Amino acid sequence: MGLTPPKYQSQIKGKKYHKIQVECWEWYCKKLEELKPIDIFCVNGDLIDGTGDRSGGTELITTDMREQREMSVECIKKAHAETVLITRGTPFHVSPAGQDAEDDIGKEVKAKKVEDHGWYNINGVVFDVKHNVGSTSVPYSKGTQISKDQIWNLIWADYNDQPRARIFIRSHVHYFFHCGDTQWLGVTTPALMAMGSKYGARRCVQHIDFGLVHFDVYKDGSYTWMPHIIPVQAQKALAVKL
Asked: Is the whole model's pTM more than 0.85, yes or no?
């Protein structure tokens, strides 16, 4: 159940999915207002859901990629950010036939960069940003994959083929997690997508988070950061009384 602007929301008011769409959209808009002014808005991949082939498109509001891109554009423009950065997501969602939806969306929102893997130097703090990261089936090893990426960055940097990064941002797995030490910070971001898919309900066990993460990076190179996560009330599971 992805972030959905009002004009695209389910018309069956009061039903579960409509409630989720309304709750998530209202929270998103309120949170952006709290965080403004937003200098840089980084959108880390999977900006549309795609054709929904796994379920024959039955879970989508629309299978029209053009309309899905329009929804994404509206969500991004809501931030009124000075600079927009976009990374490309997984082919299943954003380029099922080879076309990259993020490139088209980037043109619409006048993104400064649209790329597979980005490095951004903000007041001397280098961010390493990429959509994909490996997942895990156990809750105690969520930091393994992003820690691996940090080690690989050290190796690439030693060859002078990548900038050495301080902060690593990954998405894809739909849960918030962070790890690191005095030299680096790794964050897997919450998703702007709530529960509701058949695939997730039938195949997955991990808890997922709806939300976003913000950073304030100061001129002296120090920074603060905070996750913003909503426990979506409309999607909570309830036990059936018998």
From this structure: yes
Question: Residue 158: CB partners within 8 Å, gap ≥ 6?
Answer: none
17-74 pLDDT, tens digit each: 889 999 999 999 999 999 999 999 999 999 988 766 666 666 777 888 899 999 999 9
Q: Do 11 and 200 form a contact (C-beta atoms < 8 A)?
A: no
Q: Using CA atoms, how far apart are residues 58 and 52, in angstroms rounded to an integer?
A: 7
Token pair 């990259």: residue: 100
Q: Give the dihedral sign, CA 181/130/229/194.
A: negative
Tens digits of per-residue pLDDT, 135-189?
Answer: 988 999 999 999 999 999 999 999 999 999 999 999 999 999 999 999 999 999 9
Calpha distance 161→185 (Å, rounded): 21
Q: Name 138's Cβ contacts closer than 8 Å, sequence gap at least 6.
A: none
| Domains of the chain (ranges, CATH numbers) | 6-235 (3.60.21)
